[in-house]
Amino acid sequence: MTARSMQRALAHVPLEAAEDVAPGGDEPLAALPGDRAPALRPSHRDPLRADDGLLEVLETARFGVAYEPIVEVSTGRTVAHEALARFHRADGALIPAARAFAWLHGAPALFVETELALKRLQLERAPGHTLFVNLDPDSYLGASGAAEQFVALLARAGLDVVVEAIENLDARDAVRAGEMISGLRDAGLPFALDDVGAAGGIISFEALAHADYLKFDRSLVPVPRDARRLAVVQALVGMAKHTGARAVLEGVETVEDLELARELGVGFAQGYLFRDRFVRVGPDAR
């Protein structure tokens, strides 16, 4: 990412940045947020001073990837990975991904350029043939021609790429996610609905009917014996079987969590139980 492109992308950044989130060090992957951005909250500080080194990270493209394994419940085999973005400061510290993406939401052109760079890296360094990538509707629709660039990049990757979409924050997000999902379907790219069952989530029947994967939110795991909650999940797993979709349980941290996935009939699991299979790629690995 060149200085000129940074200046161009930052031309319309508002003077309000995302509220500070404490910068992270080399925390366990389970404790690091993924590629999801919280809603922007206004701050009265200049974003160029409050970015915790993020602009330097973006300008020098000090990006990394954490590849989280997705495991087949019946066999224990790693069958795919989910690519999670990492932002490395020059001193080696990590800027939390949620913090970085929240800030980037205030700079749409830079958001698109950053996401394209991240996706290129994630595809290039993929440790297996099937890769789940997160794609934010705000970057997919963030600039003229952005959707076409993302589709072209993912379609020619030479991998089995599954795009993770979310319809989880409010009705406007659901509409934009639906537009992105429609574009992915038209291009023949499979998609996964992420965070199914998350508190406050909004998921359309259209998305449920056409999803290739349903990824159940980790909030299911801490209270697995809630009969009503389990009934809903079992119904959705049954629906997935009828539509040809595959079900994934996220947040699996113990053998008991894995057994829950098996009892529910969920075919795949991911989480910190499989931490020894995580693959980390740093900014100096290219």
Short description:
This protein has about 290 residues and is α/β, with parallel strands linked by helices. It has helices spanning about 5-10, 55-60, 95-105, 110-125, 135-140, 145-155, 170-185, 205-210, 225-245, 255-265, and strands at about 65-70, 80-90, 95, 130-135, 160-165, 190-195, 215, 245-250, 270, 280.
Question: Which keywords apply here?
Answer:
36% helix, alpha/beta, 286 residues
What does this structure look like?
The protein is α/β, with parallel strands linked by helices and 286 residues long. The chain contains ten helices and ten strands. The protein has helices at 3-9, 54-60, 97-104, 108-124, 137-140, 146-155, 171-186, 205-210, 227-243, 255-264, and strands at residues 63-72, 78-88, 94-95, 130-134, 160-165, 191-196, 213-216, 246-249, 268-269, 279-281. It has an eight-stranded mixed β-barrel with strand order 1-2-4-5-6-7-8-9, surrounded by four helices. Helix 1 (3-9) packs across helix 4 and helix 4 (108-124) runs parallel beside helix 6 (146-155). The longest helix has 17 residues, at 108-124. The two termini are 15 Å apart.
**What is the spatial order of strands in the main beta sheet?**
1-2-4-5-6-7-8-9
How widely separated are the two ends? Answer: 15 Å
What class do helices, strands and sheet pairing give?
A: alpha/beta
Mean pLDDT across the residues is 81
Our Rg estimate from Cα atoms comes to 19 Å
Beta strand %:
15-25%
Sketch the topology as an H/E string, one letter per element. Answer: HHEEEHHEHHEHEHEHEHEE
